Amino acid sequence: MPNARFSRLAVLAALLSALALALLAALSAFPALAGPPQQDSTPAPDATPQPGAEPSATPVPQACSECHLDIVSAWETGLHAQAYADPVFQEAWQKANSEPACLACHTTGYNPRTQTYAHEGITCEACHGVTPANHPDEPVSINPGPAVCETCHATTVTEWEHSAHGEQQLACTSCHNPHPQQLLFDNDSVALCLNCHDEEPRDDYAHLSHPEQLCTDCHWHRAKPEDLLAHYTSGALYPTGHGAVVETVACVTCHADLAAEEGTLVSLDEAIDDMGLGDSPHPLLAARVRIHELEAEVDTVRAQGENTAVLRIIQGAVVGVAVGGAGALVAFRSRRRARRLSKQD
Fold it and tell me: What Cα–Cα distance (Å) separates residue 295 from each residue in 156, 275, 298?
C-alpha cells in the first residue's frame, strides 16, 4: 500500500507541475496577444485615405533631423515634401477618384498590392533607402544617381540620356539641389550654365539678338497647359526640355506675332501639316526626326560637293602634270635634235 500511495502522489505532483508550467506559459503569452502591437523603427504603413479625406502635412523625418536639421529644413520647402499634401495634386487626385497608382510617386514606400504606403510625400528613404540600424557607423547611399530619379521622372531621364549632358554623364545633382528642389547656384540658371559653358561668348545671330533672354528660355522646352492637364487626368508624363535642344516651339512662343504675319513665319500647325505629319500622335517629335533627316541629307550633299571639289582639283593637277610633262618632253627632244644638227654642220 505505501508504494501505491507514493505512486499516486508522484503522479499528482507531475500533473500539478505540468499545469503550473502551462499556466506560466499562458500568462507570458497573454500580454503579447492582448496588449498593443509592437512597433519597430519603421512606422507601420498608413492606409490609403478615402476620397475627400483632408491630407495632413508631411511629417518631418525625426531620425534624420536630429543630425541633418539643415537638410531636412531645406527639404520641407521643396516639392518632394509636398508631393502628397499639395492642394493642386489633391484636387486632381480627387477628380480621378483617388487613383491608387498616383501614390507610387506621391508617397514613400507605396505597396501596389495592398495599396498602402509608409509616408506621405517623398521622404528621405525614397532616395537614400532605409537607414541602417547601426547608422552612422554604416552610411546610407548619398548619391544613388539618375536611376532613382527615373522611377518617377522617366521622361526627363530619357531626354537627359539622349542629350549632350547625358553623353558626359552629368547626373541630375550636377545641376539640381534635390532637397529644396531648386537649381544650384541659388537657383540662378545662367550662372549654372556658365559654370561649364565658360568659353568665349557666342557671336552668332541667335545669341546676339537675344541678350535679355535666359539660356533656359530657348534651350529648355516647356510643356503646354494641355500636357499638364493630361498628366492630371491620365498620369501621362510630359516633355521637360532636358534634351537642351532649341525647339521650334521656343521661337514661336515668343514670336507669335511674327508667325501670324504673312510672308514671315508660318504657324506651328501649318508647318506640321506642310511636313505631312498632321496625323502623327506626336507631331513635334516626328518633326524633329524629319528635321534631323533633312540635316543629314544636307550634310551628305555638302560632303559630296566637297569630295567633287577635291576630285576636280586632283583632276586638274593630273592634267597639269600630264600637259607639263608632255611639254617638257617635247622641249627636251627638240633640244636634242638641235644639238645633233649643229654637230653635223
Answer: 25, 15, 5
How far apart CA 345 and CA 342 sit, in angstroms, is 5
Q: What confidence tens digit (pLDDT) does each residue in 207-226 have?
A: 888 888 888 888 887 777 77
Q: Residue with C-alpha cell 507605396?
A: 110
H/E stretch holding 298 reads: helix 283-344
Domain boundaries, the chain: 43-130
Residue 115, C-alpha cell as written in the block: 495599396
* Spatial separation of the C-alpha atoms in residues 108 and 64, rounded to whole Å: 15
- The three state secondary structure string of 110-166 is CECCCCEECEECCCHHHHHCCCCCCCCCCCCCCCCCHHHHHCCCHHHHHHHHCCHHH
Residue holding cell 531620425? 63
pLDDT tens digit sequence for 256-289: 766 556 555 555 666 667 777 777 776 666 766 7
Phi and psi torsions of 239, nearest 5°: -60, 145
3-state helix, strand, coil in the chain (%, to 5): 55, 5, 40
Write the burial class of residue 248 (CB in 10 Å: 0-12 exposed, 13-18 middle, 19+ buried): middle
Instruction: Please state, in angstroms and rounded to a whole number, the distance separating the CA atoms of residues 84 and 120.
Output: 6
